[in-house]
Amino acid sequence: MRAFRGLLMIPVLAFAATGCSSIEPWVKPYDRENLADPIMVFTRAPISQDFLDHVFESREGSRGATGGGGGGCGCN
Amino acid sequence: MASNLNTRLAACVITCLALSGGARAGVLPEDRADLLYFRYDGGGVVIDGPSMLVRKSIGEHVSVSANYYIDMVSSASVDVETSASPYEDERTQSSLSVDFLHGKSTYSIGYVNSDESDYKAKTMFASVSHDMFGDLTTVSFSFKNGKNDVFRNVKTDGVVGNDPAFQQEMESKGYSVSLSQIVTKNLVLSGQYEVITDEGWLNSPYRSVRFFIGTDQQGQQPEVYPNTRSSNAASIRAKYFLPYRAAIDAMYRFYTDTWGVVGHTAELGYVHPLDTAWVGGNWIFEGRVRYYTQSAADFYMDIFPRADYSNFMARDKELATYNAITAGLGATYEFKVERFPWLSKGQVNFRFDHMMITYDDFRDARYSLGSFGTLPDEPLPPGTEPLYELDANIYQLFFSAFF
Amino acid sequence: MSVRTVKAKGIGKIVKGLALAAAFVLPAFATSSSGPAPSFKLSGRGGKAIDLSQFKGQVVMINFWATWCGPCRQEMPLLEDIYKKYKPMGFTMLAVNVEPDSKAAEAWLGKLAKPVSFPVAFDVDSKVSKAYNVAGMPSTVFVDRKGNFRVMHKGYKPGDENFYLTQIRSMLKE
């Protein structure tokens, strides 16, 4: 739990950094064409990935850290 | 029945992630309905069944997702062959989740219920996801809590039912933090760290370990596991857009737990769309290779030197030392239906995966113990059986509708 | 660890907590400004040149859009309705496409079920998007009759057209 609490600080610090530093988002919303392409999503079919992750996890001793994030298209 | 404990836990965990719609915090996930038929065939086990997923947004801020899934298991695995009789069972899992979008944040809560004749699992999960830094960065936190009841099936007068003298419980808690970062116009990176802690009855009521009696005989006794297990997993993945319109991705995960299991996972994938006229519509092809290597739990042994060798003893091949390679190919055909303008697109998907596992310290005990109580003609001395290998074919056929 | 250090850590945690909480506050969707709108000259449909200064005297609604952006596509027919209704009163819509491949965008416009009749310009090297600090897709900028930059609206959700109409009507009265 202590390790987890420590890790909780990383995104907080990341946010604090964005607030006080002068780094500008370097990929502009109008440059997000490729990232917005449907093939660029980490999981195209959750129902299928769900099932495969289930198959692996029931045969392996490992578990966790299989979810992914996304890029977003900068829309709205 | 004896389907692994991991199966049950895994199913709930994974579904939670799928249902929570990933980490696209500032936008609700798209509406869709999927119907999947799957079949796993390998190592004497056949599991098939349907899975149905529906996701619908309500207004501008809420998205609801529901999944119904059935595993029909027909098992004559190597463990079952050496200690029991073949069995059939059915596991039903239903889950529901709700996402709330508020500005750049998404809040999700959900519930998963899994039922089979000898295992009942209930899991709740909650997560928060936030887009920041010009939508280049997404941070997510999630928590899950599962409470499971373990039963044991016995056959009385030819009828299979729960043993009234056996009922155990276990509880699982998981915490995860993940960060997704857009690095360039063509590259996304994502990292995740997850801690899971299990407490309670963590083994199988059916599985045994074996031990030497003298130098060439063997005996069996029930497995004994610790009643806690705490694990850490950290993964990183990347996805890159290729200029001719295709995408490659890579993933690595490191796993370690208090049972001494260490696992490395590496995966490489390639997605190639083809939407030129000569192909007759929109196709998306996908290829994937996954490599997994694991070193055994501290209290795992294929055959122990003697009975009651140590406080904890396991012979579950899931906890053994082994390497696994899985290669997969998938094809998706996308189409629009003029008659249904509410259907923005439909897809037919097919996917085939082939999994090959070679164990370093799990032997094929059928060579000494026989199969379903029938000894082989020339039983091998215990400990000299060949190392076990498992090949499995996994088929998926599913339809997706987007609206 | 001294008491002072513990207190400092505690305060630090509170500050960080507040900073994190601030991240969850609704972001502003519209920003106001004044001063002349950055001028530009771009290629339009059919290769015709479009210069922002040619619209001086009219209220101009500049809409930055892309074919890959869902809300932009959703908004397009509404923009056509607004253009048709207010054009006689001294209003013009000007859609600026931000994609590097203008041919693909032109082709997409040609296939629309409800074609658009307002001017469309192609900002292939994103110079205009940068000049206007486009921070979300789509982005809509209102320029008054004198050529001044008045309001920028980020994003599109059904219902935003009411905001557009309010801006247009008030600027037309000036």
Quick structural gist:
The complex is a heterotrimer of chains A (76), B (403) and C (174). Chain B is mainly beta.
Portion in helices of chain B? under 10%
Give the CATH superfamily of chain C: Glutaredoxin
Shape of chain C: globular
CA-based gyration radius of chain C = 21 Å
What assembly state would you assign to the polypeptide chains in this entry?
heterotrimer
Quick one: CATH class of chain B?
Mainly Beta
Distance between the termini of chain B: 39 Å
How would you portray this structure in words?
The complex is a heterotrimer of chains A (76), B (403) and C (174). By secondary structure, chain A is mainly α. Chain A contains 2 helices and no strands. Chain A has one domain (2-57). The longest helix of chain A has 19 residues, at 2-20. Chain B has one domain: Porin, CATH 2.40.160. The longest helix of chain B has 15 residues, at 5-19. In chain C, strands 1-8-7-4-5-6-2-3 form an 8-stranded mixed β-sheet, covered by helices on one side. Chain C is globular. Residues 22-28 of chain C have low confidence and may be disordered. With 174 residues, chain C is of the alpha+beta class. The chains are: A mainly alpha (76), B mainly beta (403), C alpha+beta (174). At the A-B interface, helix 1 and helix 2 of A face helix 1, strand 1, strand 7, strand 8 and strand 9 of B.
